Amino acid sequence: MIAADAAASFDRLARRLIDRARALAEARAAETLLARRGDPARWRKARLLWPQFTQG
Fold first, then answer.
1. Whole-model pTM?
2. How wide is the angle at C-alpha 20 spanned by C-alphas 33 and 3, nearest 5°?
3. Considering just the CA atoms, what is the radius of gyration of the chain in Å?
4. 1-56 pLDDT, tens per residue?
5. Dist. CA 46–CA 41, nearest whole Å
6. Nearest alpha-carbon partner for 54 in 27, 32, 34
7. Rounded to whole angstroms, how far apart are CA atoms 56 and 54?
8. In angstroms, rounded to a whole number, what is the distance separating the alpha carbons of residues 13 and 40?
């Protein structure tokens, strides 16, 4: 029989969702700051364009 720990599974899911939300919020804040400065480099930074697929 397979035993499953639903609480542990939910904790892992919650952590992944929190990490994803944090990455999106950080990218949005950085992009907003660069946009206010009128910096065209914001369109060349992969971490701002695709925050869910890049790390760091």
1. 0.71
2. 170
3. 17
4. 566 677 788 999 999 999 999 999 999 999 999 999 998 888 888 888 788 777 65
5. 10
6. 27
7. 7
8. 36
* 46 Cβ neighbours under 8 A, 6+ residues apart: 53, 54
**pLDDT given at position 51:** 80
CB-based contacts of 53, cutoff 8 Å, min separation 6: 46
Counting every residue written for the chain, the total comes to 56
CA gap 4, 21 in Å, rounded: 27
User: What single letter denotes the amino acid at residue 16?
Assistant: R
| C-alpha distance from residue 7 to each of 21, 39, 48, 54 (Å) | 21, 45, 33, 29
